[in-house]
TrEMBL record:
Recorded topology in the membrane: Multi-pass membrane protein
Cited Pfam families: 7tm_1 (PF00001)
Gene: LOC113515469
Name of the molecule in the record: Tachykinin-like peptides receptor 99D isoform X2
Lineage: superkingdom: Eukaryota
PANTHER family: G-PROTEIN COUPLED RECEPTOR TKR-1-RELATED
GO MF annotations in UniProt: tachykinin receptor activity
GO cellular component entries: plasma membrane
Record carries keyword Aminoacyl-tRNA synthetase: no
Protein family according to the UniProt entry: Belongs to the G-protein coupled receptor 1 family.
Annotated organism of origin: Galleria mellonella
Amino acid sequence: MLDELGPTAESNRSTAYVSDLHNVYVTFYDEINKVYINDTQNGTEVYQSFILPWWRQVLWTVLFAGMVVVATVGNLVVIWIVLANKRMRSVTNYFLVNLSVADAMVSTLNVTFNFTYMLYSDWPFGHFYCKFCQFIAVLSISASVFTLMAISIDRYVAIMSPLRPRLGKRATLGIAAAIWAGSSVISSPNLIYFTTETTILPDGSTRRVCFPEWPDGITTRSQLEYIYNVAFMVLTYFLPIVSMTFTYARVGVELWGSQSIGECTQRQLDNVKSKRRVVKMMIVVVVIFAVCWLPFHVYFVVTSYYPDVVNYPHIQEIYLGFYWLAMSNSMYNPIIYCWMNSKFRRGFKQFFWCCGALGGGGLSRHRPFGTDRLDRSVRSLSPSRKNGTSTIRISMHSTYNNTLMAST
């Protein structure tokens, strides 16, 4: 499953890191005695542990911290842009808010804790958060993927069947609630079966571990876990990729490949261009998702058939790279929205402008998505709202504000 990233105590007390679908065995190295720690008594496996040099720990910490900050801030700004402006509250944007909520959750409630666990081989966050952290991991990735699927289906229906009634606000929120409910069901085994334990290392020290203990055996010895992991991979990667590839391929053919009969009005042309921009943006989002998560899933497929790969000297850093790439998917979406959508771009500019005004003590004089210099100059030049000139200027200002953040 997604982020089972803690050491686990097996029946013979060998130590393993558990990640997503299968175990990742990592090697701890005794830097004082310059030897690997082994415990071969009573036929036990080699005890493995691996502590990275401090400068590599710092490097990975900077990479993960930067990713968490960008993902959290970016997704919270996306949520603010849509909820703060009524003209941004379209069906697609509601789904983007749902996606941003899931991405912000995984970056704030999961990545930091699991990365700390991987780095120091110890779980200091308690029994409850061991369960909750892994539950949030699968919950958020499932919600993200199903939201992307919902967006692709909504775009498909809107473009392929333009006369069909669009989803209303209530139906959109109902679909979002169903996404979270289904994701909670998929993630519920983590909440049930994860537990903590304190293990004694061969050198006499202790550490706390967070691991899943399934009804038919501990992790890596459980057939139920294997079935669950395969089902999770199919439901949250292969099935969504196939579905979204089909829908966006059909939509692409319809928008770029079909030839309209007769002349088109400028309004019709603008409508097609608008749809193309939205579809382009969502195709980029899906492609980035597929690229980010593919190495992560391939890694576990390879290690399931070739277990000796996990004993490779640099396997922990290889895994950290794959894990960082997968988790970094949560920070790319806001960047894509800002890059490819002018309305979100204006929203980001307005947000950071407001932050700058707040830092300068001037936020109280401005409104989010509201008036700017044009508005202040209009009001300063309008002596009265009763004359015709003032009415025209106010109308111009209203048009400017309405077009500032029109819905996607």
